[in-house]
Amino acid sequence: MGSLGRCLARSLLRGQPGPRRPPGPPRRHGSDSAELQEKTLVLVKPDAVQRRLVGDVIKRFERRGFKLVGMKLLQANHGILDKHYHQLRQKPFYPSLLAYMTSGPLVAMVWEGYNVVRSTRAMVGDTNSAEAKPGTIRGDFSMHVSRNVVHASDSVEMAHKEIGFWFHSDELVAWECSDRDYTYGP
């Protein structure tokens, strides 16, 4: 069970409404507090949903120590995809990209943690599946660049922008879990 599952289970067993931070070492404050709150967008694309890989993706992020703060299953429409893939609209493969991304449901997630954008890009692997290293999500689960399983924001600025395309601010959950102290230290 991942950290979210453990925290929810503990809070339910204690009869509390949701995850809360137990007594323990105080939180760190200072320059790296903002880095600990960095967020990124991860889309589990229709091919991965069809292949039931969502749990495998979530498990990798939880094992890394990142915190899931938003998740939803949805059928993407052309409007949101036009915003999300704006820089690719003039590319010859754009129509097939739209067809692929609207071919079935996808799972949009927001993950939070220290250097989560850079770490996520490393975990996801090269866009071209043939060049993605074993051990990365694409290296382990993708066979072709046109079915590369996941999308991950490529910068903090882009993550902020992309999260705004897929989530309203009230859809993101601020919660604390004691696993944070074991991941980041005192």
Brief account:
With 186 residues, this protein is an alpha+beta fold. The chain contains 10 helices and 4 strands. The chain has a 4-stranded antiparallel β-sheet with strand order 2-3-1-4.
What does this structure look like?
This protein has ten helices and four strands. With 186 residues, the chain is an alpha+beta fold. It has one domain: Nucleoside diphosphate kinase-like domain (Alpha-Beta Plaits, 2-Layer Sandwich). The protein has a four-stranded antiparallel sheet. The protein is globular and about 50 Å long. About 13% of the residues have low confidence.
Features:
alpha+beta; Alpha-Beta Plaits; four-stranded antiparallel beta sheet; 4 strands; 41% helix; nucleotide-binding; NDK-like_dom; Nucleoside_diP_kinase; ATP-binding; Nucleoside diphosphate kinase
Topology:
Layout: H1 3-13, H2 33-36, E1 39-44, H3 46-50, H4 54-64, E2 67-74, H5 78-84, H6 94-101, E3 106-112, H7 116-124, H8 137-141, E4 150-152, H9 156-166, H10 179-184
Antiparallel strand pairs: 1-3, 1-4, 2-3
